[in-house]
TrEMBL record:
The chain crosses the membrane at residues 89-111, 117-137, 144-161, 173-192, 204-227, 239-257, 277-300. The lineage of its organism: Bacteria, Bacillati, Actinomycetota, Actinomycetes, Kitasatosporales. The keyword ATP-binding does not apply. Residues 1-82 are annotated as: Disordered. Keywords: Membrane, Transmembrane, Transmembrane helix. InterPro entries: BaxI_1-like. This is Bax inhibitor-1/YccA family protein. PANTHER family: CONSERVED TRANSMEMBRANE PROTEIN-RELATED. Pfam families: BaxI_1.
Length: 304
């Protein structure tokens, strides 16, 4: 089962024979050793019973493994120093989110609200999307691409936030607090075990997310061609508020997938470089939630 987050969709984590490995094939013979008390001892919750969920994956062989591992020799656990840790994820996430924040502050300070700044914001968003797509389809994490994405995304968010603040004073600050509240509550629910990220959970959530995105795309086309007025489903009225709440719930869903993927990456000994992808995925999800929260704050604030 691959992650529903596109950043992680080309990666997979599995635990084999008592040591942590990344996309490693299971070693033949014998049960896993040293697994007592380990919550991951029975394998990933995404895995079909009794099998490696990545066995049929074209990326199932570990691209980071030595050559003899690729040809069937007993795999060796990677050195501890090269494994991803939670501290690595936190540090990389701080760097990417910090870059977004710096880009947003500079854009807010240097680009006054005008048609020119709106054009620059759209251009920055398109560039950020290109960088994000390149990273998604790369086999390995590229810190330069991820930080470039964060910088241009920050410029876009800075202009958009200033635009909302000029009409609904304080809306960006409230949106930041709302985003932090959603992220904190989601983490609490996840760590408390109230949500179990299983294959069925991911499938149902992704089906809803894909349907939502398709409906929003159709709505955008209808608005562009004048079929729907006042934004259609994305209006600034009650219907728009309902759609915004659904979008934020979907953002929380993606956060649970991110948390699970990070937890598995740390537990299964993913390469340290993967912490950049974890930070990238978290940044994209938090940007999603912030934008939706910004719209929601504006809707509930009403027209001033």
């Amino acid at each position: 089962m691959r992650s529903s987050n596109p950043v992680f969709s080309r990666r997979g984590f599995s635990r084999d024979n008592g040591y942590a490995g990344f996309n490693a094939q299971p070693q033949a013979g014998g049960p896993a050793v040293g697994t007592q008390g380990n919550p991951y001892a029975q394998g990933s919750p995404y895995a079909p019973q009794g099998g490696n969920p990545y066995a049929q994956n074209p990326y199932a062989q570990n691209p980071y493994a030595p050559q003899d591992v690729q040809h069937g020799a007993p795999p060796q656990a990677p050195p501890t120093a090269d494994r991803m840790t939670l501290d690595d994820v936190i540090a990389r996430s701080a760097m990417t989110l910090g870059t977004v924040t710096v880009g947003a502050v500079l854009a807010w300070a240097l680009l006054p609200v005008s048609s020119t700044s709106y054009g620059l914001a759209i251009g920055a968003a398109l560039i950020a999307m290109v960088f994000a797509l390149i990273q998604v389809f790369k086999r390995k994490a590229s810190p330069a691409l991820i930080l470039a994405y964060a910088a241009f995304e920050g410029v876009f968010l800075g202009v958009v936030s200033e635009m909302f603040n000029s009409r609904w004073s304080g809306a960006p600050f409230q949106a930041v607090l709302g985003t932090m509240a959603v992220a904190g509550a989601t983490l609490l629910v996840y760590k408390a075990g109230w949500v179990r990220v299983t294959a069925r959970y991911a499938r149902i959530g992704m089906a809803i997310a894909i349907a939502f995105i398709l409906v929003m795309a159709v709505n955008l086309l209808m608005v562009a061609f004048g079929v729907a007025e006042d934004g259609g489903l994305r209006s600034m009225g009650p219907l728009g508020a309902i759609v915004g709440i659904i979008a934020i719930i979907l953002g929380a869903f993606f956060l649970t997938l991110d948390f699970k993927q990070i937890e598995d990456g740390v537990a299964y000994g993913a390469p340290r470089q993967e912490s950049w992808l974890a930070a990238f995925g978290l940044t994209m999800t938090l940007v999603w939630i912030y934008i939706e929260m910004l719209r929601l704050v504006a809707i509930f604030s009403g027209d001033d």
